[in-house]
Request: fold
Amino acid sequence: MKKDGKNVIKAPEKRMPDKSIKKEVMFHGIPASPGIAMGLVQILGKEESILEEVKDEKKLAPEDVEKETAIFKDALEKTRTETKVLMTRVKETVGQSDASIFDAQFLILDDKMLLNEVLAGISKKLLSAENAFRQTVSKYIAAISAIEDPYLKERAADIKDVAERLIAHLRGGRKVVLEHLPGPRIVVAKDLTPSDTALLDKENVLAFATESGSKTSHSAILARSIRIPAIVSMNRFYNRLEDGDYLIIDGFLGTAVLNPEKATIELYKQKEKSESRLYDEYLRETQLKSETVDGYRVELAANVENAENLEEIKKFGAAGIGLFRTEYLYMNRDTFPSEEEQFEVYKKVAQSLGGRPAIIRTLDLGGDKLSSLITTHEQNPFLGQRAIRLCLAHPELLKTQMRAILRAGTFGKLRMMFPMVSGVKELDELLRILDEVKMNLQKSNQRFDGSMEIGVMIEIPSAALVAEHLAEKVDFFSIGTNDLVQYTLAVDRNNEQVASLYEPLHPAVLALIGMTVRAANKHGIWVGVCGESGGDPLCIPLLVGLGVKELSMSPISIGQTRRLIRKMSMREAEQLANAALAARDGWETMAISRRYVEQKFPVILHGN
Ligand code: PEP
Ligand code: MG
Reply:
């Protein structure tokens, strides 16, 4: 020790990590869509400040001035609405004083001088809306920042924030990146909304991985539907990656490998090969009956989010469409789809199936499926004005859709299904509106399917509990396990923090499913499952054992499900279901089911 007490022992020199040697790192998340992908990373949402980007200054053609002005006004309006929503949220969560940061933002959005300067930039200097706005607002920000005053410096940051949001609206937000990736990429984001996912540049997106979300989030469901590997709920992942990193995604196991070594890449290539061999085998089995060894038939249907790849459904040997999610027709657009537009889509569905049935579900917007067409802000959107609640509040929306479905029904075999029914009163109102729509179609001499089968989704516990009464009024039930689990266990289906509590095989959920089947049997109607449990190998034996007649799933799962069912017996499945109903928790039921599947078809759980 030195006299002054300071340590003289020299600390070992800190070596800076050599950035050129990148170490292989493995991350774990929840597998959301099967498949292996390898490639470069594209991060969403970490872009440089878009205010400072240099954009080419090509002049507008004079005839485009009007359009560009309209684009600017629209983005301005959207930013105002968004800022109001943000302000309310901050007010509610942290209080009025913090919400006052938005005052400066509104000052900018309402500043006549600034807005006139932007409009003049467009009309006189023939600048694009983005360039005109960027130039003007940058001048303001520079002027305020130049003043040596900490308060004003902060206000400059607030203005920059709102300006960036406005520019994002001018560019269609993240949509630009989502729709136009620079090449084949693995998209990494904190989260992806269903409308983001619907926009993904399918040619170039190899896979995606998000920090939030779960297996039943709609972005995961969409990934399975468009058959891109995906992992969700990747803890502490996003900030460790950069654009251009090399990544492997294993959507079977939910693992991602950053900077893989050669041997690792080889390993995954082998895995990819054996998985695709298995997949080809399934395709060769599509003509085989999906029947247990003791002759219990289970219809295997497909869940579909758009009318683009209907051919695939036949390729996978689906008995039809068990769920057509129509809400995607309402996303990423500025106007509601007209009756004619919807009619054409549903007609295409009906015609493409060659007589096989398709269940068209009426609009289920709300929850995490948002559309800029519906701008209400709710504190608990999953418990709010979602699905038929929204439709009953705006009956014209529902009537237009009903007309389109009923008319398209004459081109094949369509069924209509109502989501989120909580009880008889709502169903009565829906059926009353349906009768009115039919009457009006008749009056105007339009062709429509007057005897179309009508069903309800059982996805709210109250609906399962009053299923006997609902069954008197409809032709079928389809159990939406994604929501039924969420509402029964009070666990947000999208929240990775409570993902371990989201138990599709919780005895309480199984009891509600059993109750629904019994009510349906009593009234001679059939029951399907169209939630993600319908395609989950661990849930299938119990669902079949409980008496479900149809399982609807993403088409890619149909092949393996058919093979599993052909290895099962109904007698055993019923025994399993009875044991599961008597179990104390979801771990027990899961173990019961896992033992059985391990014994019958282990490949479905572990791969080849
Ligand atoms: C469900 O809730 O299980 C379901 C199929 O509907 P969605 O996932 O669209 O809410
Ligand atoms: Mg649902």
In short: The chain has a mean pLDDT of 88. The pocket of phosphoenolpyruvate (ligand 1) is lined by residues 323, 325, 364, 459, 480-483, 530-531 (CB under 6 Å).
